[in-house]
Amino acid sequence: MEAAELVTSLIERGETVATAESLTAGLVCATLTGVPGSSAVVRGGLIVYATDLKAALAGVDRALLAEHGAVHPEVAAQLAEGARDRCGATWGLGLTGVAGPAAQDGVAPGTVYVALAGRGTRTVRTLGLDGGRERIRTEAVRAVFALLGEHLR
Prior knowledge:
A hairpin with a 2-residue loop joins β4 and β5. With 153 residues, this protein is of the alpha/beta class. It contains six helices and five strands, in the order αβαβαααβββα. It has a five-stranded mixed beta sheet with strand order 2-1-3-4-5.
């Protein structure tokens, strides 16, 4: 689902969204807020590029980060929950992964986790993306939009 469709659907449903982004560094929130009328539904976003900020700002469990690193499906889920809770939104989106060009903590470029949190909903998708940094980041945005869109239909 495209950003404009998501914004329209959220407006119609009277729901809101917030993000906690690592590899996309605010690209999800920026794309959503590029849509006229998005201020009615976008609560805000956390850019948690550094590992310590995932815990400090989004509430990701420090023990999880210490044991598994920043690129892990449970980290994405906790980012989504943190965005939702801290920003007071209906839906939270969380993204973590490796855009490259080098591996991070032994995780290959193109490994991405996107997550959605809502009342009674906690979903994580694992992506294996090809291409350079910008393609991986763009595809991560598309994937998290598709995930949210599935829950808004």
